[in-house]
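Same chain as my last thread, 232 residues:
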Amino acid sequence: MERLAAEMPMDAPWMKRKDWACGRIRSGGVAALVLWWVVAGVWNGFMLILIAVFWGDPEYDDAVKVVALFELIGLGILIFAVQQTWVWIRFGGSLLELASIPGVIGGTLDGWIQTGIRTFPTKPVQLVLTCRRSRRVVRHVKGGQKSDTTTDILWQTDRDVEVGRFTRGPRGLAIPVQIAIPYGLPGSDNSDPHNDIHWHLAVSCDLPGVDFQADFAVPVFVTEKSKSDWTR
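reply #2:
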């Protein structure tokens, strides 16, 4: 991977990120876990405070029932946070090793996902590659400004990796990645904070007692290897 990175032109946009430049991208597990726990804590804490304030007052019986329904959503978020924490403790983070840098529009995204899964799954592993556009619109309102962010999926494809293609990596299960990307899509771009293009590769598989998931922000660009006739 170091040799591949050394051969890249220094003005290539994917060289601006260290993990992209060396082709070793770690899953965003820790940050996502912290976010889920923060959301679960704030949501459940706020709902419980409302229930405690209104509890026992006949005038607010209907309000308590509505808040209790929202608290069920909070419990669902909490359960999900616990499940994902258990997955992290059991398997640790995953690592995507790119075979070539970057992923090519009008070409392919190739590499291996190295995981801490010790027992090979008995069912196919699903890979999902997604191109998203995030737009931030600032509107002038009375007393200041208000910003809204919308996210649109520009393109998405999924692949099932069959059991026979798994190999054993340095830490556990190694999952091959080879996904064709049609020509004409936008490349990764965060130069404009109001109009970002993100490419993400997600992997998921069913394991006994747990649903394993990992997500990687991947570099995908138009390069000299791009083939303009790859339009499907």
